[in-house]
Design goal:
The complex is a heterodimer. Chain A is mainly α. Chain A has 14 helices and two strands. Chain A has helices at 2-5, 15-18, 21-46, 54-71, 76-100, 105-123, 138-144, 154-172, 174-184, 186-191, 196-222, 233-244, 255-274, 279-304, and strands at 146-147, 152-153. Chain A has a two-stranded antiparallel sheet with strand order 1-2. The longest helix of chain A has 27 residues, at 196-222. By secondary structure, chain B is an alpha/beta fold. Chain B has two domains: 7-240, 3-Layer(aba) Sandwich (Rossmann fold), CATH 3.40.50.300; 258-339 and 424-501, P-loop containing nucleotide triphosphate hydrolases (Rossmann fold). In chain B, the strands form five sheets. Chain B has a six-stranded mixed β-sheet, sandwiched between helices. In chain B, strands 16-19-20-13-21-22 form a six-stranded mixed β-sheet, with helices on both faces. In chain B, helix 8 (232-240) packs across helix 17 (494-501) and helix 13 (378-391) crosses helix 14. The longest helix of chain B is centred in the middle third of the chain and has 16 residues, at 176-191. Chain B is globular, with a radius of gyration of 25 Å. The chains are: A mainly alpha, B alpha/beta. Chains A and B meet through helix 8, helix 9 and helix 10 of A and helix 10, helix 11 and strand 18 of B.
């Protein structure tokens, strides 16, 4: 895929940049937040669901975090947990609406997407929450910093650690196995003693939690709370999951596939942007690549069966 | 009656991989006649009707309508020739209006080529009035009950100028009153010269409506006689009179303590008041016993097992005792905790998680036993799955193979392994040998005997009577949700069971 894009590169010395670690570090840093969302999205999609609210929940929890930290000047030991709880609660609400009222995930989370965006604007009265005259709390700097001689961003570490935790959940816990079973055949799972509604609700709760982790990271990276933050991120994270090869029908896929999808999207964007491809073309190319990637992995599956 | 029959099907044969579904079956239907088509499940009734309606092409044999040979290469062809089928599962679109359903695909047009709604309403109300069903045709189908929906299906058939009408178990979800109404309509259609093929498991209905009766058994035409000439005992004999051709391993039962007792169990049909899928059923089953639950389709034996297992998410009326203790079961996890296991009659829809591996399907119920410090231990999982794979001789390339790629018999054994791993004491087996080859069947019979001799109680449902008679220590026969007879292994015969089931 990368090979297909290189010929389109201009004659300027952009090729050199690709071979420096800084380039990859920046790519990872820029797409870690999407990747964190994609972790939660993966388990929701494994249950044959979808979560459209993660972008808005990112915005909402980011605002909430900025409000607690900047406006109220609370300690991060209070601000971070409260933000994570807020995101989780919103996610659980998604799950309860879906399972108790049998509303399609698409519709339920679409409603949450709209409401959470409203709440994000409400928190800051429609404006960003910035430090202004006050001191910006140190936690913002800390989260957006880079370690190992400036070679690895903290958000990237959070992203990779999330991947590890999700791998354990999916492959080494009953809960993880139940997620696959529900996505593969929820009636068979139910008759096998899986508490389908509970597990499904938990999946949305976890997606909400990951939105909040992403929200805190986003606010820290930008140094303010932005009510518009995370717009369109839900679609990017769905694309990452699907490009990786996790099936939207549910029951098939995994977290490493999502890592792969995250890297593919990240590199496509990065390569197109450093080559000065206009945003209009970038979107068109990206759309085509998403379709191509899904076609490739589907034909691969068909021959395997 | 004219001399040339309306429909003649001559020496029709049809085979599917591994099964001769029909061999040289002939069938005749005259104008204004109702022919009852009867036979056990799998006798070939549906296949014959699917050939008539163009769903399948026969391997050999011919179909004549009004003495003219016809060939149907699709249901559309059959429809054009005047054949209409009303299946058990209605083929209406629930959210769409009655008139659109009646005239679907053949909507009248105005001269601007737009749909002529007024004409559509006129035509469809006319048809329904003809059937004594003057309903508002602009309302969506879903607002009407099943009986009315059935009439809408008939109206649809009439609008196609159907001369041959096939009704497959049309009364299975109708009340007695609605059945009467339906019969009035059938008589009316007869008067108009329509020929009706009436498929039913309910003997009293066959005798009430049919002029002649055709009996199929194992894909062969056993005989046809007028209703007067064919008393019910003889009809049953025709339906079941076959030799037992399978090998059933023998077993000396050692019946122990009572494991499960059900008293007064009643399960209402969802969405229909006054109709019960299971009606006031009481029985008990003991350790080491195989209890057969006989019944034709719709008799209520399958829902009975589901209800006990908590499948329907609500507590059925009545009491359930396990080892003498009263229990409340409202969900499958509770049933599993009480030592029950439930193999459903549809392994793809509710048995297997098809995209998962053999291993993960096998351990799904007993994952709790595969954990160490809360984490799943892949080694423990692998070890127990291997043990069960060997003891049930499941043939699979590897435990990691996706379960969907296995043969039917091996898939069934994977589900059995899944349940056995949870070490149940009460096994519900609903059609454990459906759709699997003879070798695998015999293996499953031996396994059932082994589990019974280990002291488990088994409740067995199977639509194959010889299998039920050979395997069960005791047989309960159900009909319309109620138990109509009980036989010991020694006294049960196919004729007796069938008579109680109809």
């Amino acid at each position: 895929m990368i090979g297909a894009i290189f010929p389109g590169m201009s004659g300027e010395n952009k090729l050199g940049a690709f071979f420096t670690w800084d380039y990859h570090r920046d790519m990872l840093r820029d797409y870690s937040i999407h990747g964190i969302l994609a972790c939660g999205m993966t388990i929701v999609i494994l249950t044959a669901g979808i979560d459209l609210s993660v972008g808005s929940l990112l915005g909402m929890t980011g605002m909430f975090f900025a409000h607690l930290m900047i406006n109220l000047q609370l300690s991060p030991a209070v601000g971070i947990p409260f933000s994570l709880v807020a995101g989780t609660a919103a996610g659980l609400l998604n799950g309860v609406v879906i399972t108790s009222f049998r509303i399609q995930p698409f519709v339920a989370t679409l409603a949450m997407m709209v409401s959470a965006r409203g709440l994000a604007k409400f928190i800051g009265g429609g404006r960003k929450i910035q430090a202004g005259t006050q001191q910006l709390p140190a936690i913002f700097e800390q989260i957006s910093s880079q370690v190992l001689n400036n070679n690895l961003a903290i958000v990237t570490i959070i992203f990779l650690a999330s991947m590890g935790v999700f791998w354990l959940i999916l492959n080494r816990t009953r809960f993880g196995r139940h997620l696959y079973a529900i996505g593969g055949n929820d009636e068979a799972a139910r008759l096998s003693g899986v508490r389908v509604n509970l597990v499904r609700t938990a999946a949305y709760g976890i997606a909400g939690l990951m939105s909040a982790v992403a929200g805190v990271c986003y606010a820290a990276r930008t140094y303010y709370g932005d009510p518009e933050a995370g717009q369109g991120y839900e679609l990017t994270s769905i694309a990452m999951v699907v490009i990786g090869g996790t099936s939207l029908i549910g029951g098939r896929g995994g977290i490493f596939l999502t890592l792969l999808g995250t890297l593919i999207i990240g590199y496509i964007e990065k390569i197109l942007s450093i080559n000065g491809v206009e945003i209009a073309y970038r979107f068109m190319v990206e759309g085509a690549i998403i379709v191509a990637a899904v076609i490739i992995q589907q034909t691969g599956r068909r021959t395997r069966l | 009656m004219k001399d040339t029959p309306l429909l003649q099907m001559k020496r029709i044969s049809k085979s599917f991989p591994g099964v001769q579904a029909l061999s040289e079956v002939s069938f005749e239907l005259h104008e204004g006649e109702v022919v009852g088509l009867v036979g056990e499940n799998g006798a070939g009734k549906s296949t014959l009707m699917k050939i008539l309606s163009g769903v399948y092409a026969p391997d050999r044999g011919e179909i004549l309508i009004d003495g003219q040979a016809v060939r149907f290469s699709s249901p559309k062809d059959a429809e054009r020739a005047g054949v209409a089928v009303i299946y058990q599962e209605l083929s209406l679109v629930p959210s769409v209006s009655v008139m659109e359903n009646v005239l679907m695909g053949r909507e009248p047009r105005t001269r601007w080529k737009t749909v002529d709604w007024r004409e559509m309403a006129r035509v469809s109300s006319e048809l329904l009035t003809l059937l004594d069903m003057p309903i508002d045709v602009r309302r969506p189908v879903e607002e009407f009950g099943v009986a009315v929906q059935q009439m809408i299906e008939i109206a649809k058939a009439l609008s196609l100028n159907a001369r041959i009408l096939v009704m497959d178990e049309p009364t299975s979800s109708l009340s007695e009153h609605e059945t009467k109404q339906l019969f009035d309509i059938v008589r009316k259609l007869k008067g108009k010269g329509v020929g009706v093929v009436y498929i039913s498991h309910k003997m009293e209905e066959i005798y009430e409506i049919a002029d002649r009766i055709t009996v199929l058994r194992d894909g062969q035409h056993v005989g046809t006689a007028t209703a007067e000439e064919l008393p019910s005992e003889k009809m049953i004999q025709w339906m079941v009179g076959r030799k037992i051709d399978q090998f059933f391993p023998s077993r000396t039962p050692e019946i122990g303590e009572e494991l499960l007792k059900v008293s007064g169990l009643t399960l209402p049909q969802p969405g229909m008041s006054g109709v019960n899928l299971v009606n006031n059923v009481s029985f008990s089953v003991h350790s080491g016993e195989i209890l057969g639950l006989a019944g034709l389709r719709g008799a209520g034996n399958s829902p009975l097992l589901g209800a006990i297992f908590g499948r329907y998410g609500r507590r059925p009326r009545g009491d359930i005792h396990i080892r003498g203790e009263k229990v409340e079961i409202t969900s499958p996890p509770q049933a599993i905790a009480h030592g029950m296991a439930y193999l459903t009659n549809d392994r793809k829809a509710s048995g297997l998680v098809l995209p998962m591996s053999v291993l993960h399907n096998m351990t799904l119920v007993s994952l709790r036993d595969m954990t160490r410090f809360g984490w799943l231990d892949p080694l423990v999982e692998q070890r127990s799955a291997s043990a069960y794979r060997d003891s049930l001789s499941i043939r699979t390339p590897s435990l990691r193979t996706e379960v969907s790629t296995l043969s039917g018999g091996n898939q069934q054994k994977v589900i059995l392994a899944k349940w056995l791993m949870s070490e149940p004491s009460i096994l519900f087996l609903d059609e454990p040998t459906r759709g699997i080859d003879v070798g695998a069947k015999t293996e499953i019979y031996s396994l059932m005997n082994r589990w019974a001799s280990e002291g488990k109680a088994i409740l067995l449902i199977t639509s194959e009577l010889p299998e039920l008679l050979a395997m069960s220590d005791r047989i309960l026969v159900m009909h319309r949700g109620e138990i109509t007879a009980e036989f010991s292994h020694e006294e049960a015969t196919q004729e007796k069971v069938m008579a109680a089931a109809m």
